[in-house]
């Protein structure tokens, strides 16, 4: 006999997004159940954000130290790969979720372990690993927070090769002698940076003409230059047409007929939504599809189903998913309380406006690449009358103090009709900590005339803001 329980809200997926939906709904006085088939904490905690940054931090720290007089001679040797991997393991809690389960308990959220499937309007069936079943009924909302998985191309031989995806690249327990990385986006360049520094001979195979195609072109150019200087090979304009593994060696066939041998091959070629086995067909929706939502994160055409985080394809970043969770949690609570009219206008309490206007991102390579808002191409495609303002970050006193031979570039995109910022990009050592100032300026629609009075401390790298404004004013 199937057990049944009723809650105000049922959340599918206990990654950072699902956790935050649950937290906000509980803060609003609602009862919440959360369903998870793997580890509480999700992809970010165990196979993405945390382990990848734990791998990259020693790499970036050593790169920075090598640019500082009096220190560079002390850091010329190789990284201690075993120590780096052990540090990574600590940050994943050794792939155990006890701490995060304890947090759910502390806020009063019930955890149901097992595979959850929608079984009709406001209904979810959870099947445990032992075959037991429980049916959860939601009085107000079901939130799909199941994220994405790595999308592998349909290539001859790929199943037998057992390629790395982002999961294997962030959790591997050894350093491969030769690593082929297929892709040119964030996962590809971050993992190429990490494993090259840990001792792999990395070859990056990029179908397009450059790296980081969703950022300003100079970001990918500077990252590619640094990867090559570090010893990696970066090949652009090439595609993999087949792969095979023999005697432990992977051979990739390229579209020009050339072949490449490696010990492991990482495919970082996109993401697909984890909606294929959620029972979407029971409510008239297509399994395996992205879930389009309105500004409050409610699935279009539904009064009770929400899709929060990567599954809605708005902005595939953990911090944006957590932002959406705060918006969705507020919207679910307001509707449960009978609020007649939600604040869904731009920047309203129930509107995920930042997904369209002020998304920040940091790529933890050497140099770092950080952006917020629109690129020049995106702003022009949207029909905005804009001006791009560029500045060589090496001209900032703080940058020179930060690192000898500092290389970097900054760009801000100005809306000429309103004289506010639409986008900012920084590339250079240490710029990841600069990007929140750009996010605040964009989200706050701070006028250029007012930004002129935001005085950067001297001598810091953030003085690049003054140089950008001076360049704009002429």
TrEMBL record:
Residues in Pyridine nucleotide-disulphide oxidoreductase dimerisation domain copies: 359-465
Q: Which InterPro entries match?
A: Class-I_Pyr_Nuc-Dis_Oxidored, FAD/NAD-bd_sf, FAD/NAD-binding_dom, FAD/NAD-linked_Rdtase_dimer_sf, Pyr_nuc-diS_OxRdtase, Pyr_nucl-diS_OxRdtase_dimer
Cited SUPFAM superfamilies: FAD/NAD(P)-binding domain, FAD/NAD-linked reductases, dimerisation (C-terminal) domain
> What single Pfam family name could you report for this chain, choosing any that match?
Pyr_redox_2
Task: List cofactor names only.
Answer: FAD
Report domain FAD/NAD(P)-binding positions. Answer: 7-320
What are the record keywords, sorted? FAD, Flavoprotein, NAD
Asked if the keyword Repressor belongs to this entry, the reply reads no
The family line of this record is: Belongs to the class-I pyridine nucleotide-disulfide oxidoreductase family.
Q: Which PANTHER family match?
A: DIHYDROLIPOYL DEHYDROGENASE, MITOCHONDRIAL, DISULFIDE OXIDOREDUCTASE
* Record protein name field: NAD(P)/FAD-dependent oxidoreductase
Organism of origin: Streptomyces durmitorensis
High-level lineage: Bacteria, Bacillati, Actinomycetota, Actinomycetes, Kitasatosporales
